[in-house]
Write a structure and sequence with these properties.
Elements: H1 13-25, H2 28-45, H3 48-58, H4 70-82, H5 84-91, H6 94-97, H7 107-115, H8 118-143, H9 149-166, H10 171-186, H11 189-192, H12 202-212, H13 216-231, H14 239-247, H15 261-266
Amino acid sequence: MEQRSQIYWTPCAAHCIDLILTDLGKIHRMQQVVEIAHTITRFIYNHIWVLSLMQTYTGGEILRSDITRFATNYIALDSLLQKKTALRQMFVSAEWQESRYARAGTDESHVKNLVTSQSFWQRAEKIVKAIKPLYEVLRVVDSERYPQMGFLYYMMERIKKQISENDPKHAQEFINIIECRWDYQMGRDLHLAGIDMDSELLAAFRNVIYKMVSDPEIVSLCLQETKQFREESDSFGVPSAVVSKKQMNPGKLHINNEQCRLICNFA
């Protein structure tokens, strides 16, 4: 890095979100719900007759969770919730009642009690509802369909608002975990420079230019383009350019405007 001072070493946004999910998964009440889900799915898939009965009632499979990755635990919980009604019907069905698994005081009857417990499903629903916005952003980042940092930061702010609405009681705990990871890994000049050159984050954009460009003349031209862009002066002031500024991928702005080729190289 000392020999390549113009190169940024930056964390991956998808990895950062995955770490946030991992941190959230360490919350004790979440671990409890995930463990119950593990118990239910392990029991079903470890007994051929029960598995066959489950497939008959649900018409499909339950996605099983991973011990170490909370993202897969979220998927498994969501899958389990989608089959909630069918599973509860199965455990009170005549087939179940007449089977050897229905005897009281056994591990099987314990699993039945878990599945018919309203408390477990309510807790699982709260977790899935709170985590869903974050998981959806992880999928977007992995797809690379929307690469702009500004779009990603906007989505993260929207996530915090949605979490506050979905689970007001525990929202601040979730938000603190998100902000701790996000600010530490994604609050760097190179990331902040991609958010919005109309904001107070302009200083971060300048720092990126100073680091990546060694030629003072090119630095001056970049800053001049930035000023024209922010002030919507010259060709940046025409209606199509103003619309493109808000809607187009920053790296493609030069398609509509030849004046911004230098700053588009940074985008």
